[in-house]
Protein: Prephenate dehydrogenase
Amino acid sequence: MSAPEAAPTGEHLRAAGERPALVARTRGPVHVIGAGLLGASVGLGLRERGVDVTLEDLSPTSVALAADYGAGRVRTAEDESPVLVVIATPPDVTADVVERALRTYPDAVVTDVASVKLAPFAELKRRGIDLAKYVGSHPMAGRERGGAIMARADLFVGRPWVICRDGETPADALALVEAVALDLGGVLMEMTPEEHDRSVGLVSHLPQVVSSLLAARLVPASEQAIGLAGGGLRDTTRVASSDPELWVQILGANSAPVVELLDAFSADVAAFADALRDPARTGARRRIADLLSAGNNGVSRIPGKHGSSERFTQITVLIDDSPGQLAKLLTELGELGINMEDLRLEHSPGAQIGFAEIAVLPEVAERAVADLVERGWRTL
Structure:
């Protein structure tokens, strides 16, 4: 899986000061197969940059909806052959669709954006398919809900876009896929399929399983208990609303790395529970503290805004749960010259009040609180 020396990577392109212009590189349309969230978002982003995009989907309703939202036009038999095919189908059919696309459009470069890379690649190799014009890729972007209705042209901006390619991939094929990723705002990364699947198992697939299992514990809970829920529960269960059918496919295709991670996670849970059964036992409190501290160390490694390691201070502002209050707060933050790095809203059950949790740089936090209080805002 090593890269040939002649193939320019995204880092090389950026270092040379070049901005890959997809339109200048192509003499035909980009064809997107799969008109769901990712496919429609690719279409919207490329259309916004003046690229001719054609769409295809097994569902006539899905492809028509994506076209209505502006992601492209439904492909017809009269359309010229595409120069690039982007496959955005569920992972259990990715290999089949890649094979069909390579045969149907022999002059086109084919890429897919499936969230697992090794299984489709291995299956295509097993079938003896010539993969010279296939470049697997995966933008680390998505939303809890799918479909064209949730698609966004800026979905990939600032997000890692992993390129997985064979060592014999031609430079022009690689450059075209990289150009698409860069034009859509992605940050290029290169991995082997094995490295990719192990990595997403840790940062995406394991969190999905843990979040879903935690949320499942809420099903038998009383309404009184649920009424106490706050930001911590919302944070840890946010992705639990994802599509179960899609995740059965993803997890099935990446089962080995996820099982390994779940086994290690289960061991940590068992060790934590064992220490907590008798916290007065010698060494138990230290074991609990060590596991919690490891969590501190781990979360500190998660990239912050724009992939940086910058950490922010949270300021919580109480706002009346009425129209115009949030807009007023944001306006006043701008007037005070306070840059808001992130925002989260939470409503207080049974009360006409909300909480705006604002992330700011640590060095401006104290001034921000003082200025907001001076203007009449209540902070926590």
Remarks:
- Residues 3 and 373 are 57 Å apart (CA to CA).
- The domain at 308-379 is CATH 3.30.70.260 (Alpha-Beta Plaits).
- The chain has three domains: 10-192, 197-271, 308-379.
- The mean pLDDT is 86.
